[in-house]
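Same chain as my last thread, 221 residues:
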Amino acid sequence: GSKFIEEKLGPNTYQISPGAFFQVTTAGAEILYNVVADRVKEVSSDPSDILMFDVCCGTGTIGLHCLAEGVVGRVVGIDISEPAIEDALANAKRNGFGDDESEAKTRFVASRAELVMGRELRRINNLKSNVGPPKSIVAVVDPARDGLHPDVIKAIRSTKEIKRLVYVSCNPTGSLVKDTVILCGPETKKYRGLPFKPTRAQPVDMFPLTPHCEMVMTFDR
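reply #2:
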């Protein structure tokens, strides 16, 4: 039999391996991803100017959705799950966002975000491309219920080029609150870089008739 299942979400079709994460309610996920896309496109009137770091990217759904909606020029997806990244690479190619190195719209990396964000940014800035380096950088994070690892927050805060952070949380009264305190706290020896400010919050009811919801929180600096 097949080694994966397929799901259509918005304009894209995704393959999902047994070990990879995918939202259980595709209709709700499309609404959620449209909210994220709306927050991302506010950064620049020219989508080709925008580089999106898709942290905890899973099978690449958020980044590829934003590309399909035409709100970003490039996506760098990062996740520690190698099966998920393999799916993300296949999904990028399947939906027309893979291949040519010099003009690549996507790059997916199996690693801890804090280890590769700086390297990937330098790589893109040095890439020989007609598009040139990005003028605006947005980070989108979609962590598990425990929230972001402190080292990921450290990496995001210290990457001064990131002016907007879009945080998708499945635990808005728990880990989102904890992470917000660190993201928006004063600069310390551990957390360097200017603090963010929460500027917008949008709940999305992904799980009708349950007490759970997703929260899309926007931070700027």
